[in-house]
Specification:
Elements (H helix, E strand, L loop, with lengths): L1 E7 L12 E3 L5 E6 L1 E6 L5 E12 L5 E13 L8 E4 L5 E4 L9 E4 L3 E14 L6 E10 L2 E18 L3
Parallel strand pairs: 4-12
Antiparallel strand pairs: 1-12, 2-3, 3-5, 5-10, 6-7, 6-9, 6-11, 8-10, 11-12
Length: 166
């Protein structure tokens, strides 16, 4: 019976993160990608990734409605460079603020002068790590007249099955 041991970590985990930060010119809105993690078994199905997380800072004096207008799933096969090839553009399924939400919504309201962790959900995409594969989500946010785009990298690990000697 196989057991799972010996994680092969993505080389991207040793490289600088591809997650980015974007800020509006007036610094009212700042969006920062949060690195995610997924895994799959070598020889098995790929990892299924259905969300990306971001830190959202709103420094406005009034509440603001935040939506996501676009998501791109990016892939790359280079240990030294962030993923840049658009593999797909999954449709946004919903948004969840870390504090207090039980169900996702198409839009969320950011309270004045707040720091929020936001999860952007979408239909799962497949990610299979072989060697130096990197994956990220490029997400465009809209808050009133402000539009910002940031990346959240997902580090995918490959787990090697191992047959235990009998």
């Amino acid at each position: 019976m196989p057991i799972f041991t010996g994680l092969f970590l993505s080389v991207a985990m040793a490289s600088p993160s591809a997650s980015t930060t974007a800020s509006s010119e007036d610094s009212r809105l700042t969006v920062t990608g949060i690195d995610g993690h997924a895994r799959h078994t070598h020889g098995g199905p790929p990892a299924a990734i259905g969300h990306a997380r971001f830190q959202i800072q709103w420094r406005g004096e009034q509440p603001v409605r935040l939506t996501v207008t676009h998501v791109d799933f990016l892939i790359g096969h280079d240990c030294e460079h962030p993923p840049a090839t658009v593999s797909s553009s999954p449709k946004v399924g919903g948004l969840i603020l870390a504090e207090g939400m039980v169900e996702s919504a198409k839009a969320v309201t950011l309270t004045p002068n707040s720091d929020n962790q936001l999860t952007v959900g979408f239909p799962a995409v497949s990610a299979y790590y072989t060697h130096c594969d990197r994956f990220a989500f490029r997400v465009t946010f809209q808050a009133d007249d402000l539009a910002l785009t940031a990346l959240a990298e997902t580090n995918v690990m490959r787990v090697e099955p191992y047959d235990r000697p009998r």
